[in-house]
Amino acid sequence: MAPQSVEKYNKYIAGNPKAALIFFSLDRSKDAAEKWAAKVGMPWLTVLQEDIVKSKLNQYSPRAVPTWILIDKDGEKIASGSSVFEKVAELTGKENG
Questions:
Q1: Residue 95 — very low, low, confident or very high, per pLDDT cuts 50/70/90?
Q2: How many domains does the chain have?
Q3: What would the 3-class secondary structure string for the chain be?
Q4: Residue at 31 is within a domain
Q5: Domain range holding 45?
Q6: What is the C-alpha separation between 95 and 78, in angstroms, rounded?
Q7: If pLDDT is split at 50, 70 and 90, which confidence band does 43 have?
Q8: Residue 8, domain member (yes or no)
Q9: Which of 14, 38, 84, 86 has the largest count of CB atoms under 10 Å?
Q10: Cis status, amide bond into 17, omega within 30 of 0
Q11: Using an 8 Å Cβ cutoff, are 8 and 85 in contact?
Q12: Could you give the C-alpha distances from 9 to 20, 28, 81, 88, in angstroms and in order?
């Protein structure tokens, strides 16, 4: 998952002021989540399981990895699956990095 995700992040989201990516970790511990994120070079925000409810995004919490869900600023689901990156490009006008 990670190399392709980082490539798509860099292409469609990095440096795009109209979009952000949040990763919900399914790891049981903060240490495990941080080690994995560092190993694969994930450049985006990570929300740990223990913080999902506090983030107020718990309705989008994944059951499997990867799960991609695109939501708007009002919390409405716009797209899901691997097409979310292309939808970000369509909505924000950022076709590539």
A1: low
A2: 1
A3: CHHHHHHHHHHHCCCCCCCCCEEECCCCCHHHHHHHHHHHCCCCEEECHHHCCCCCCHHHCCCCCCCCEEECCCCCEEEECCCHHHHHHHHHCCCCC
A4: yes
A5: 2-92
A6: 18
A7: confident
A8: yes
A9: 84
A10: no
A11: yes
A12: 9, 25, 14, 10
For helices 2-12 and 30-40, give the axis angle rounded to 10 degrees: 70
Within a domain: 97: no
d(CA 96, CA 14): 10
pTM: 0.69
Which CATH number goes with the domain that contains 24?
3.40.30.10
Cα–Cα separations (whole angstroms), residue 45 to 38, 93, 95 = 12, 23, 22
Whether the CB-CB separation of 97 and 10 falls below 8 Å is answered with yes
Retrieve residue 63's tokens: 């059951």
- Write down the mean pLDDT value for the chain: 82
Asked if residue 27 belongs to a domain, the reply is yes
Q: Per-residue pLDDT for 74 more than 80? A: yes
